[in-house]
Specification:
Layout lengths: L14 H16 L3 H16 L1 E9 L6 E7 L3 H7 L7 H8 L4 E3 L21 E8 L2 E11 L7 H52 L4 H16 L1 E10 L2 E9 L8 E3 L4 H8 L3 E3 L2 H5 L14 E8 L2 E11 L8 H68 L2 H29 L2 H5 L2 H15 L3 E7 L12 H22 L3 E9 L2 E8 L15 H10 L3 E7 L2 E9 L17
Parallel strand pairs: 12-13
Antiparallel strand pairs: 1-2, 1-5, 3-4, 4-5, 6-7, 6-11, 7-8, 9-10, 10-11, 13-14, 14-16, 15-16
Helix pairs in contact: 1-2, 1-5, 2-5, 5-6, 5-9, 6-9, 9-10, 9-14, 12-13, 13-14
Length: about 575
């Protein structure tokens, strides 16, 4: 190892010092924590040179003043008595202005010395060497009070110079490691953000309801920025409503604040994220009302979809220390919030569309039953009224008797018709003995009334058996699907044969209705087919419906989860995980 003049620095070092320098260098270079490195350097400097005191002065970015001063050999009481650390004036400033090794036999007598402050221990001998990192002065190593021999010699200086070079390598390693760790953290955060956004996109694609979308958002958002708690406030008229929360928030949902009386409302208006350090000022109300008592800092992200302010996503306190959120946290949660807002807006739109579809299906059902009652029951009763009126005007007993007998027969027929309509609305068999029996009764009626050849394959466990107890709403959905399909076959298909299959197993219900009729064009189907109601029932049950029709016949197939609601549940996602 040579100095600036080409002389070999290690030539003047004895074997013990060389071995010590090699050992110390290995430890220092392997250490990637900067504070630990600097502490090791000061210990090594004292050991190699016999100095009683050692210090490292770290320069500021301009390289003109000391930004940091680390000492070795001073007890806490002495450091407190000295007071403020040196700024790099006097003898220390000589090394800063001229970064070359410097030895002084008496600090007090040197003309560059400014002297020592009150309470400072006596220091006579002095040795200073610069620490150069990639040719730039990073700082200086200072040694004072040589013990034993009295003065620092050339060997001490050479050892300090070698140690300073080891120090420069270790500092550069620690700096590069810190940069790599920072970039790794950024990459991990980017991956987490991508995973969280993908989860939200999947939720929207799966068409789950708004409550589950909101719960998924708060849990993913909390994990993304390591927040203690995350809440969502959604706009409802002139108020913000606590709609979802994750983490340490314990307050039931439904708390309300006026938009004009909150920082959240201001945030919605200007549409920019905000980091705050005082939660009380943020909410302008007790934090306990949001179940986040004890919170200090917060990060607010406005939620907007297609220019419409939806609400605010708020993260409270970083875990585990409760520290404030960083710019990186803000950027990550802002990007996530954009996807979350899209998810909320889409889920709301789906919810509104489902409501419209449900109302439309209900209205179509009312029209259908109104038509049935008008065409069958009402017209039949009108005919009976005419029959009895004519017989009463005639007055002859034989005519009256005949009219009464005929009326009785017609009333019995209408009772049967009304019973059929009531059964169609909600067959008693569904409530009493289950889905299989209700379907068998439905098939028997079609075989008898419509002379329809139905081949049925039902694999539905009896009630009481494993998997045999289905949710009543699910049973009704499956029954209605089969019922509407058979009605379409009778009215439109002109089919001679129908195959119906309903299977319960593996956590799902699979229903398929296949006819050999004339089929229909799916894109030109009329309302009379009732497909909107069929599709809505299946979707509301969390299932999927497919319809394939051609001149060879029609296939209606549905797969539904064997529960009241088969959509992905956000509460099945562990809190705070990605």
């Amino acid at each position: 190892m040579d100095d600036d003049d080409g002389h070999r620095i290690t030539d003047g070092l004895d074997s013990d010092r060389l071995r010590t320098l090699i050992d110390i260098g290995g430890f220092i270079v392997a250490d990637l924590d900067l504070d630990s490195v600097l502490g090791r350097v000061l210990d090594a400097a004292c050991e190699l040179t016999g100095a009683r005191y050692a210090a490292l002065g770290v320069l500021d970015e301009a390289g003109t003043d000391l930004e940091r001063f680390i000492t070795q050999g001073l007890d806490p009481e002495t450091e407190q008595a000295i007071g403020e650390r040196p700024l790099g004036r006097g003898l220390l400033g000589v090394l800063i202005r001229d970064p070359k090794p410097l030895r002084v036999s008496s600090v007090d007598e040197d003309p560059a010395s400014y002297g020592f402050p009150a309470g400072h221990p006596a220091m006579n001998t002095f040795l200073g060497v610069p620490v150069l990192v990639r040719g730039h002065v990073w700082g200086n190593l200072y040694l004072t009070e040589k013990q034993g021999a009295g003065q620092f010699d050339q060997a001490d200086e050479d050892a300090a110079v070698v140690l300073a070079r080891w120090t420069a390598i270790a500092i550069e390693n620690a700096r590069l490691y810190s940069i790599a760790e920072h970039r790794r953290g950024e990459l991990e955060r980017a991956v987490q953000g991508l995973q969280a956004t993908q989860a939200i996109a999947h939720a929207v694609g799966a068409d789950i309801d708004l409550d589950r979308v909101l719960e998924l958002i708060v849990k993913r958002g909390r994990a993304l920025v390591d927040a203690r708690s995350v809440v969502i406030l959604l706009r409802d008229g002139d108020e913000l409503v606590l709609t979802a929360s994750a983490g340490h928030s314990r307050r039931p949902h439904g708390e309300r604040i006026a938009i004009d009386a909150s920082t959240s409302g201001e945030l919605m208006r200007h549409g920019r994220p905000e980091r705050v350090s005082n939660v009380q000022d943020l909410l302008r109300m007790a934090p306990e009302q949001f179940g986040v008592d004890g919170a200090h800092s917060a990060l607010l992200i406005p939620l907007a979809h297609r220019g419409e302010p939806l609400g605010v996503l708020i993260a409270f306190d970083r875990e585990p220390t409760g520290a404030s959120f960083s710019e990186e946290d803000e950027a990550a949660l802002k990007a996530f919030g954009a996807s979350a807002a899209t998810a909320v807006g889409t889920a709301r739109g789906v919810k509104r569309q489902r409501l419209r579809d449900a109302l439309s299906a209900a209205e179509a059902e009312r029209r259908r039953w109104a038509q049935e009652l008008h065409d069958e029951t009402l017209q039949g009763l009108g005919g009976l009224r005419i029959l009895l009126s004519v017989a009463r005007r005639d007055g002859r007993p034989t005519v009256l008797t005949k009219a009464v007998d005929q009326t009785i027969l017609e009333i019995e027929r209408e009772i049967t018709n009304l019973g059929s309509i009531i059964t169609e609305l909600r067959p008693a068999a569904l409530d009493s003995i289950g889905l299989a029996a209700a379907l068998e009764a439905l098939f028997d009626r079609h075989r008898t009334v419509n002379d329809l050849n139905i081949e049925a394959r039902l694999a539905i466990p009896d009630r009481g058996q494993a998997g045999g107890t289905l949710d009543p709403q699910l049973e009704a959905s499956v029954y209605r699907l089969v019922q509407e399909s058979l009605t379409n076959v009778v009215k439109h298909a002109r089919a001679t044969r129908v195959e119906v299959s309903v299977t319960v197993g593996a956590g799902r219900v699979v229903a398929e209705i296949v006819d050999d009729g004339v089929g229909f064009a799916l894109d030109h189907v009329s309302r009379g087919f009732g497909l909107t109601g069929m599709r809505e029932r299946v979707v509301m049950a969390g299932g999927e419906l497919t319809i394939d029709s051609s001149d060879a016949g029609t296939i209606v197939a549905a797969t539904l989860p064997a529960s009241a609601d088969g959509t992905a549940k956000a509460d099945q996602i562990p809190d705070g995980t990605l």
